[in-house]
Design a protein that fits this description.
Blueprint lengths: L11 E6 L2 E5 L10 H9 L4 E7 L4 E6 L6 H13 L2 H14 L10 H20 L11 H4 L3 H9 L1 H14 L4 H14 L3 H32 L6 E5 L5 E5 L8 E4 L8 E12 L1 H4 L5 E3 L4 E2 L4 E13 L5 H10 L7 H28 L2 H9 L3 H21 L2 E3 L2 H9 L2 E4 L1 H5 E12 L5 H12 L5 H12 L11 E3 L3 E6 L2 E6 L1 H6 L8 H9 L3 E7 L2 E12 L3 H10 L4 E5 L4 H11 L3 E3 L4 H12 L5 E5 L5 H6 L2 E5 L4 H7 L2 E3 L6 H35 L5 H20 L6 H5 L1
Parallel strand pairs: 13-20, 13-22, 20-21, 22-23, 23-24
Antiparallel strand pairs: 1-2, 2-4, 3-4, 5-6, 5-7, 7-11, 8-9, 8-10, 8-11, 12-24, 14-19, 15-16, 16-17, 17-18, 18-19
Helix pairs in contact: 4-6, 4-9, 6-9, 7-8, 8-9, 8-13, 9-11, 9-14, 9-27, 12-13, 12-14, 13-26, 13-27, 14-26, 14-27, 15-26, 17-18, 21-26, 26-27
InterPro entries: ATPase_P-typ_cyto_dom_N, ATPase_P-typ_P_site, ATPase_P-typ_transduc_dom_A_sf, ATPase_P-type_domA, Cation_Transport_ATPase_IB, HAD-like_sf, HAD_sf, P-typ_ATPase_IB
Family: Belongs to the cation transport ATPase (P-type) (TC 3.A.3) family. Type IB subfamily.
Membrane topology: Multi-pass membrane protein
C-alpha cells in the first residue's frame, strides 16, 4: 500500500568519475542551515579537495584525491559527517510528515443523528402508506421538490449542504458530502423522493454507529475524572475543617478525604492511612494502601480510612485532567494508513461523478447513472480506519493505557525492535539490601546501624535501601554529627569521636583505608549483580553491603511474549555500569546492551537503528529517557511511579506496573490493524460488486443505496468489536 521510504541518511551515487562523485542523500533537504559546517567538516579531512551542496536536489558534489581514498571509504566519511546532524534532520522530517496529515472532518452529536433517524423513519413510513406522494419523472421540476419525501430529504440534508457545497467552494474539490447531496438531488429529480430518504437513512445509521464509537471513547476518558464531588474538606491552620468548592482549591491546601469520597487533587499524604482504589488512573483493580508520604491522584476513591492530602496540583493541572486533554487530542494524530485512506477516498469522489456521466452517456439510463453516485468507496474507506482506531483507544483507556493517537497504534503493530531502560523499567526501581559481609567481630546489625547514620539525610536510592533495612530490623540510628556528602563517591559523618565513611571503593581508598581484605566477597556479590557499598569507621573497613534492584515480576515472560509477536531484536540501553547491564541482559534474555550512556546517547542509538529502517519501540521512565522516547517510533512509559513525566514525553503511557500490559497493547494494535484491513476488503468488495450490477442495470437505486450503506455499516460494526476486547485475558 505504501512505497518503502529510503533511509534518511542513505547515500546514493548519482554520477561518478575518477576523483569526482555526486551523491544523493534525503537528509540534505533538511540541513540547509548547516551547509557551511558540513562543507568545512568535509574539507578538514584533507582528502576532499572541493565540495558543494544543493539542498533542493538533495545532492552533494565532491572532488577528491582518488590516490588517497576509494569511493567506499569516501562515502563512509560523508555518512559520518552528515550523521552528526541526525537529531535535527529527523526532527524536521517528522514535522514535515505531521504537516501533510489532512484535517479531520466534522463529527455530529449522537443525539442529533438520533433525532434525524426518527424523523426519517416517520417520513418513509408515511410515504409507503400514502403512495400519492410519489411524483412522476414527467412532472415539472419544481413539483418534484414539493412532495413530502422530497421536502423531508432536503430538510434532513441541510448540514450536508454546508459541508458538501461549502467544502467544494473552499477547496475546489468535491468531498463525500458533495457526492451524497448529488445522489439525493438526483433521486428527487427523477421523482424518487423515498429513495432519497432511504439514502439519508442508511447514511445516518452508519454515521450514528461511528459517532457512538467516538462517544464511548470520550465517556471512558471522562469517567476517569468524574469526581462526583462539588465540595472538599479543607483543614485550616488551627486544625479546624471547613467545606469549600472543588474549584477553589489551590496548591498547598490541606484536604481531608474520608471513606467513600473521591480524591479531588494530586498531592502527598501528610496524615492518616487509607485503602485507595486507583483503577480509574492506573487500570489496576487491586486497591493500594496509602500512608504518610504516599502520592495520590485526583479521581481515585478512598475505599476505607481517612487521610489528609497536601495539594500539589489542582483543577486542570491534575494528572487526570491532562490525561483527558491528551487522549481527546489523540483523534488528530492520524496513522499513516488512516491519512492514506482519507486522501485516497477523496481522490475517488471525482471518479464517481465521471463514472456516473459515462454510464448515462452509454446507457441513457438515469437510474444506472444515479447508482454510480450512490455507490462510492469514500465513506467506507474513511470509516475503516477512524472507527477502528477510536475503538482501540477506548479499550486501552478503560485498561489504564493512554494512547495519544492512531499513528502510534499503527507504528506499534509494525515495530520490529524493542529498546528498554533498566532502572524502573526492567527493574522495580526500588533497590534492596540483599547481602552483608562484615570484618572480624562486627555484626550485621552494627554494620547497618553505622551505614544508616551516614545515609540518614540522603535521598539516593542506595541510601533509601540501607535506611529501609534499618527500619525493618528495628535498628535505631545512633546520634551523629554533620553529614558531609562527597559527590559521586560517598558520605561521611562522626559518631562521638569516630569518623564514619560510607561509599564506593575509590572513596575509601582515597582516605587510606584498606579495602582489599574483602576482595573475594566483593567479586562474589558482583557476580550476583549487586552494587557494593563499603562501610568504614576511622581507618578500618567494617564490611560491605550488597544492594540490588529487583527485576519486575513477569518481565521476562512479557519479553518472550513480545518476541513471539514478531519483534526481532530486544536491546538494553542504560546509564548504569557495564557489569550491571550485562547481568540484567543475561537474566532477561536480551539480545544486546549498551551501558554508561547519557540521555542523548540513547537517542542517537535509536536514530541509528531507524536509519536502517528499523521500527523502534522505546520503553522508559519518561524522565531521563525523554530524548529517546521522543525520537523512537513509539515511546512507552511503563508504571504509575512516573505518571507525571510520562504524560508529557511518552506516546503511550501504561499506568499499571504489570509488564504483561506491554504485549497486551501490542496484541491490541495488531488486532486493530487486522480489523482495518478487513474493513478495506469489505468496502472494496461490496461496492465493486454494486457498481458492476448497477452498470448492468440489474440493481435498482433503492438496493444500490442499501448495498453501499450496508458496507459502511459492516465496517463500523466490525470496528466496534474492538470495544469489547479484554486486555486482562491477553495479559495472562
Amino acid at each position: 500500500m505504501f512505497v518503502k521510504k529510503q533511509d534518511l541518511f542513505k547515500l546514493v551515487i548519482k554520477h561518478s568519475l575518477t576523483g569526482r562523485i555526486r551523491l544523493n542523500c534525503r537528509a540534505l533537504r533538511y540541513l540547509n542551515e548547516f551547509n557551511e559546517e558540513i562543507l568545512r567538516d568535509l574539507l578538514d579531512t584533507k582528502i576532499i579537495k572541493k565540495a558543494s551542496i544543493n539542498n533542493i536536489t538533495k545532492n552533494i558534489l565532491i572532488n577528491y584525491d582518488s590516490n588517497m581514498i576509494d569511493q567506499d571509504d569516501l562515502m563512509k566519511i560523508v555518512t559520518e559527517v552528515l550523521s552528526s546532524y541526525s537529531l535535527y534532520a529527523y526532527k524536521e522530517e517528522r514535522k514535515e510528515e505531521a504537516s501533510n496529515i489532512i484535517v479531520r472532518e466534522r463529527e455530529e452529536d449522537v443525539k442529533d443523528i438520533a433525532k434525524r433517524l426518527a424523523i426519517n423513519v416517520s417520513l418513509i413510513g408515511y410515504s409507503l402508506a400514502t403512495k400519492k406522494n410519489e411524483i412522476s419523472a414527467t412532472d415539472p421540476i419544481y413539483k418534484r421538490f414539493l412532495s413530502v419525501p422530497a421536502i423531508g430529504a432536503v430538510y434532513l440534508t441541510k448540514s450536508l449542504f454546508n459541508d458538501g457545497i461549502g467544502g467544494l467552494l473552499k477547496t475546489k474539490k468535491p468531498n463525500a458530502d458533495t457526492l451524497t447531496i448529488s445522489s439525493i438531488l438526483a433521486s428527487i429529480l427523477t421523482g424518487k423522493g423515498t429513495s432519497a430518504l432511504t439514502i439519508i437513512l442508511l447514511s445516518d445509521i452508519a454515521e450514528f454507529m461511528t459517532s457512538y464509537t467516538m462517544k464511548k471513547t470520550r465517556e471512558s476518558i471522562k469517567h476517569m475524572m468524574d469526581l462526583n464531588e462539588d465540595y472538599v474538606w479543607k483543614q485550616e491552620e488551627n486544625g479546624s475543617v471547613r467545606r469549600i468548592l472543588v474549584d477553589d482549591v489551590k496548591v498547598g491546601y490541606k484536604i481531608v478525604v474520608h471513606t467513600g469520597e473521591k480524591i479531588c487533587v494530586d498531592g502527598i499524604v501528610i496524615n492518616g492511612e487509607a485503602i485507595v482504589d486507583q483503577s480509574a488512573v492506573t487500570g489496576e483493580y487491586m486497591p493500594d494502601i496509602k500512608k504518610v508520604g504516599s502520592e495520590v491522584f485526583s479521581g481515585t476513591l478512598v475505599k476505607n480510612g481517612n487521610i489528609i492530602v497536601e495539594t500539589q496540583r489542582a483543577g486542570d493541572n491534575t494528572v487526570v485532567s491532562r490525561i483527558i486533554n491528551l487522549v481527546e487530542d489523540a483523534a488528530y494524530n492520524k496513522a499513516k494508513i488512516q491519512d492514506y485512506a482519507d486522501k485516497f477516498s477523496n481522490y475517488l469522489i471525482p471518479f464517481n461523478f465521471v463514472l456516473a456521466g459515462a454510464t448515462y452517456i452509454a446507457t441513457k439510463s438515469m437510474t444506472r447513472a444515479l447508482n454510480m453516485m450512490i455507490i462510492d468507496y469514500s465513506c467506507g474507506i474513511k470509516l475503516s480506519t477512524a472507527t477502528a482506531f477510536s475503538a482501540a483507544i477506548n479499550t486501552a483507556v478503560r485498561n489504564g493505557v493512554l494512547i495519544k493517537g492512531g499513528n502510534y497504534i499503527e507504528a506499534l503493530a509494525e515495530a520490529d525492535t524493542l529498546i528498554l531502560d533498566k532502572t524502573g523499567t526492567l527493574t522495580q526501581g526500588k533497590p534492596e539490601v540483599l547481602d552483608m559481609v562484615t570484618v572480624d567481630d562486627v555484626s550485621c546489625k552494627e554494620l547497618i546501624a553505622i551505614a544508616a547514620t551516614a545515609e540518614e539525610t540522603s535521598s539516593h536510592p542506595m541510601a533509601n535501601a540501607i535506611l529501609s533495612k534499618a527500619r525493618m530490623q528495628g535498628i535505631e540510628v545512633p546520634q551523629h554529627g554533620e553529614i558531609i556528602t562527597h559527590v559521586a563517591k560517598g558520605v561521611e559523618t562522626n559518631i562521638e569521636e569516630d569518623i564514619v565513611r560510607v561509599g564506593n571503593r575509590l572513596f575509601l581508598q582515597e582516605n587510606d583505608i584498606d579495602v582489599d581484605v574483602l576482595n573475594d566477597e566483593v567479586r562474589d556479590l558482583k557476580k550476583k549483580g549487586q552494587s557494593i557499598i563499603y562501610v568504614a569507621k576511622n581507618n578500618k573497613l567494617l564490611g560491605i553491603i550488597g544492594i540490588q534492584d529487583k527485576m519486575r515480576e513477569n518481565m521476562k515472560k512479557s519479553l518472550n511474549n513480545i518476541r513471539y509477536q514478531g519483534v526481532d531484536e530486544i536491546l538494553l540501553l542504560t546509564g548504569d555500569l557495564k557489569e550491571q547491564a550485562k547481568i540484567v541482559a543475561k537474566k532477561m534474555g536480551i539480545d544486546g546492551y549498551k551501558a554508561e550512556l547519557l540521555p542523548e546517547d540513547k537517542a542517537k542509538t535509536i536514530l541509528k537503528l531507524q536509519s536502517k529502517n528499523s521500527k523502534v519501540i522505546m520503553v522508559g521512565d519518561g524522565i531521563n529517557d525523554a530524548p529517546a522516547l521522543a525520537y523512537s517510533n513509539v515511546g512507552i512509559s511503563l508504571g504509575g511511579s512516573c505518571t507525571d513525566a510520562a504524560i508529557e514525553t511518552a506516546d503511550i503511557t501504561i499506568q499499571s506496573d504489570d509488564p504483561m500490559t506491554l504485549p497486551a497493547i501490542m496484541n491490541l494494535s495488531k488486532k486493530t490493524m487486522s480489523v482495518v484491513k478487513q474493513n478495506f476488503g469489505l468496502v472494496i468488495g461490496i461496492n465493486s460488486l454494486g457498481l458492476v450490477f448497477s452498470a448492468a442495470g440489474v440493481l435498482p437505486v433503492f438496493w444500490g443505496a442499501v448495498l453501499h450503506n450496508s458496507s459502511t455499516i459492516f465496517v463500523v460494526s466490525n470496528s466496534i468489536r474492538l470495544l469489547f476486547t479484554n486486555l486482562e485475558n491477553i495479559r495472562k
